[in-house]
DNA sequence: GAATGCACTATCCTTTAGGAAAGTGCTATA
DNA sequence: TATAGCACTTTCCTAAAGGATAGTGCATTC
């Protein structure tokens, strides 16, 4: 017996969207990337540029982003030792996502107040 | 004493991005919207077009999307009664987000296999 | 020598997301 | 009359996300 299949397939779109969501899901990854990409490099600077993020969460998210090759943790051996977070070239690939979300968010806010 | 402020502000971007994430965060909202926008209308069709989503989760997400005015629940009073989920015009505004995520996901997958 | 900054880690806790499995009330079909 | 489809709901549960608070070791600055 062949099962009834009336639904429209959309896996072409769904699969890559899922792959992207697997990387960026959660409250913090995209905001952190934005902060680093505008030029914040130090742990505390990033923390302060994104209000309300706790150091524990920030540390964990930075590690995730490093694993995904979106940022790099750079150790500068001066005295005192400095640690810098820098965007990898691959990070540029997320600019269209950020732009789309930013645009949408701005428009959504307008919509709410009319 | 004025506090030291060395970090670069990026709230212009961060705020709207957050607003957007507040709406779309989670594993399912965007995939469900995609499914409805390609033309799936019935609960079970949507469920089957997105493999692995449970009816409980789908029901909840559909309610959220309705609240955000992205879809509409339409009751057709034939016999038997039909229930259809249809995209609202506002749903079109998320196309750039989907496209950006899809593009990124495709490219990311390529990257992983090279 | 006291306070502050830096880059975290550690502990504990709450909330939310999400999944598994079964069931419900209705209708239609074999 | 039994089975299947539809659109869910209910219950129970786990894992992950995220937050609060404190502390650490080091260095610099007041």
Automatic annotation (TrEMBL), chains A, B:
UniProt-listed Gene3D superfamilies:
Winged helix-like DNA-binding domain superfamily/Winged helix DNA-binding domain
Q: Which residues form a coiled coil?
A: none
Keywords associated with the record? DNA-binding, Transcription, Transcription regulation
Which parts of the sequence belong to the HTH hxlR-type domain? 15-113
Q: Which domain of life is it from?
A: Bacteria
What PANTHER family does the record point to? TRANSCRIPTIONAL REGULATOR, TRANSCRIPTIONAL REGULATOR, MARR FAMILY
Q: What is this protein called?
A: Transcriptional regulator
Per the UniProt entry, what species is this protein from, by scientific name?
A: Sphingobacterium pedocola
